[in-house]
Amino acid sequence: MNVVPSPGYSTLPEFEKPLTGFQGVLGDQAPLGLWDPLGFTKDGNVETFKKRREVEIKHGRVAMFATMGYIAPEYFKFPGFLAPSLDLKFADVPSGLKALNVVPAAGWAQIVAFCGFLELVYNKPTGEPGNYGKGNLGLGSVGLGGSVQDPTLRAKKLNAELANGRLAMFAIIGMFFQDGLTGSAWADWALYTASPLRAFEGELGIQAPVGFWDPLGYTADGDVVFFKRRRETELKHGRIAMFACMGYITPEYFKFPGYLSPKMGLQFADIPNGLAALSKVPGQGWFQIVAFLGCYELFINKPVGDEVGNYGKGNLGLGLLGPVKDPESRKKKLSAELANGRLAMMAIIGMFFQDGLTGSAWGDWALYTASPLRAFESETGIQPPIGFWDPLGLAASGNAADFKRRREVELKHGRVSMFATIGYIVPEYFRIPGNLSNYQGIKFAELPNGLAALSKVPSLGWFQIVGFAGLTEVMVYNKEENNEPGNYGAGFLGLRTVGIMNTGIQEPDLRKKKLNTELANGRLAMMAIMGMLFQDGLTGSAWGDWALYTASPLR
């Protein structure tokens, strides 16, 4: 296979050049060169590559015909009958997706049979992927031309066809999408009133600046009943959210006097605000709330007319003021209520979130020391610039024992990673003389560096490593001092363990500073060793110019 880099390949900077051996082949064109972001070609399999390229060309050819087939019937249709037995004329067949259920089954059978005949019997490859010797536009099939004989011209035409086919695939996907949504593949879709997106344009909630907003396509089926049910549900949720927002704010300034539950001796003033109240309200109180809402839902609120959310109760649902008679004013108020309800739903979600995290729905959460986020602020590892970083909320339970165990595990992983990082670098410059295994005659100098060493170290060596690590874990570093995660009284670099230091670090502030430094370095080392492992696995070496490592599976 010709692998001379093409102009497209040459335009790319080194770090963007495709990581495969297929530069210069069909489809490698400027400005992208050989574009393979998913790495389909990294296995280097030439036959698989050719098969994929041929499939791509075929899809492009079908897409080009499909695109023309979308456009041509807008201006021209065959005269006469498509199916005389069904009295179906070509002129009766609509354009685009609507034609799918109009074309008779026998017509689909002919299409499939014709494509199958071309694929299985007629088209036989004569060289490059996509070259069946049929010349320009395949006209050689009907005797109007032969194969393009000049290899350079043929490659140029196949490349142009591939590029046009890629464009056509995007074009036909866009046409399908717009046709499915609007009823036509082009023109101003606002003119196509049959589109499901047009069905609800005059309905409640279609407001500036967004207009009709339905990114998930819930209304694509055009079902008016479902649309109105969803809109009514949205209004109800918005009304509840507005009351909930007021219910969060009001108890900060005012609470009812007297008892919430005389039987339990529970006063309204005893109930905390926000989420903390959920566990304080008695079961009978929750039953009353549910019963009250159910009564309203089933017996009191009855829709008036065909308007979503209109129960004839007037402003604020007070009823005492009477219903809003004017249709335009009523629609305006319902639209305003819907917009305010949407805002309230976002607001109450934000309140729930901040309350759950900090213990209060507003204010400076640093003042709320009861928040689980405050529990570990003075612990090892809480350092600038990030401070206490726990995006997954692992410390949200406030369990000090779990927190310390996780911190100790993190310190240990960091220590192992620092040694591993050093262990990756040192053998590049120095190796222990002599034999690693006298029995097997393996010298230290014969061991490769990095991941390649995993399969070379004898099993007894692995046993010694695991045994040493286990002994250190169980017998040596098995007791924390001063209840500090990671402090085993071993001093700098753990040297006290081998008798080089008499004591550990005695001064608490200095010890905490050193543990914090070690934790930060360990975090960096964990990132470093992961990067080394990744690059070593991909390229055969953890650093250097990986282009030099031709044994890499990406080469």
Record keyword descriptors for this entry.
Chlorophyll a-b binding protein, Chloro_AB-bd_pln, 6 strands, 3 domains, 10 helices, two-stranded antiparallel ribbon, 555 residues, mainly alpha, chloroplast, Chloroa_b-bind
Q: What order do the SSEs take from the amino end to the carboxyl end, as H and E?
A: HHEEHHHEEHHHEEHH
Structural class: mainly alpha
The CATH class of the largest domain: Mainly Alpha
Mean pLDDT: 77
- How many structural domains in the coordinates? 3
Uncertain spans: 1-9, 11-20
What is the overall shape? flat
Going by CATH, the architecture of the largest domain would be Orthogonal Bundle
Which strand order do you get reading across the main beta sheet? 1-2
Rg over alpha carbons:
37 Å
Q: Helix share of residues?
A: 40-55%
Question: Any overview of this molecule?
Answer:
The chain has helices at 7-10, 46-71, 105-122, 151-182, 224-249, 283-300, 327-358, 400-425, 459-476, 508-539; strands spanning 81-83, 88-89, 259-261, 266-267, 435-437, 442-443. With 555 residues, the protein is an all-alpha fold. α2 (46-71) packs across α4 (151-182). The longest helix is centred in the N-terminal third of the chain and has 32 residues, at 151-182. The two termini are 16 Å apart. Chlorophyll b binds at residues 239, 297. Keywords: Chlorophyll, Chloroplast, Chromophore, Photosynthesis, Plastid.
